[in-house]
Predict the structure.
Amino acid sequence: MSIRLNLSLVLCTAFLLCNASGLYAGDADGTLSLNKSLQAVADKCQQPEFKKYLTSLKGKLDTSKKSTDANFTKELENEAVSAVRVANDIAAIQYKKSDVSFAYYAVPPMSNIKRLTHTYPEDGKLSGSIRIVAAKGEFEPASFVIYPFADAGKVELKVSDLVGKNGKIPASAIDVKIIKIWYQAGTAWYSYYADKTGRELVPELLLNDENLVKVDFKSKDNYLRVDYPQPRGSEYVWISNPANIDLTFNDNTEPVRDAKTLQPLSLSTGEFKQIWLTFEAPKTAEGKYSGTISVTVDGKLQSAIPIEVMVLPFELPDPKTNYDLTREYYTSIFNHSGLSGDHSKKNGGGQAPCYTGGMEMAKKRLFNEYVNMRKHNVMYPQINSKMPGYEKMLPEIIDIYKRAGLKTDTIIGAVDANDWRYSGLPEVRNNPLEKQPDHP
């Protein structure tokens, strides 16, 4: 590719981004341009609640000129730009329903876009169908974002059965979760290595009950709800402690649990909220199926979101290597699953399992975790050899491993070995085995 063509692409991209953001740059001219855009889309808006919100944003932008808080001003401008773009999208498809209280975009579930409250879905389709293609027995994700025109205290989502020429797929085949935005270490989303000096908002936590975790956006802290028996009742516990601050709180033994099913969620005007769907294709299904997600906002039924599913006429084979299709590809994953936990010292020491309900509950939990891994084609999850009392529990772990349907022709983990810190020492790397020092 020539330098001239490269430069042309860069300039073209910069121009498009400027137009997409309303040509604002945080200065007087940029704010004026954004105000004009807000006024223009408000004049054309057919939805009363959205029109009211667009007009209020214009007033907020005028007031923000006096603000000395650069972060507040930038976030307000992002909010306004997203509102303008959504309004333009609605106008472009001539969406004239005046009684709806939200818009939605079908978006790719896997994306490099970090979807925060004011992140416009560049890769989304307004009012698009939720489309899923899966092989028999396969898990496939899908996603959409909701954009509310007004606050809503109780939003209920309900999936219908999926119907096709070859029969019906029950609604239970689609699991619906809310994606919670919360704070992680400073390099979250961008890097595997954590920057403990900062905190970054990340959309990653899948929940049935969005109120299980509360986020303080001013202090950048996360709080976990603990549902103690009465009379103590529910409390929120700070969980944003740095690694060097050891809290006495242990989420494995305390009464912490997400709801079993999706709970009603809340919406704030002009803030995108992402919803995650996981479809488990029945092995008996085949062909095209369709259904809906009904949306009820504060007791009022809204337009349904269509779902289209294609189940392919085959099951996926076990994965093989790309260089030899007769050789097994070992799908594994690092995990902390086990029958004794690294929090045992916080519970008086010893080798007791660190889960509420004792050893039987720990076994049940481990079995369910292994089954979940197997369903997602992780057939060789690592067996954690770092947990206290591991050696005594290994036969029990292997038994649960087999009952969950995992493969045991090769075991990954299980035997404690030298870690990467030891392997990287100069006296280890630069010497033959007989001259290497003993592992500490």
Remarks:
- The two ends are 54 Å apart (CA to CA).
- Residues 89 and 126 are 7 Å apart (CA to CA).
- Confidence is low (pLDDT under 50) at residues 1-28, 341-354.
- The chain is about 25% helix and 25% strand.
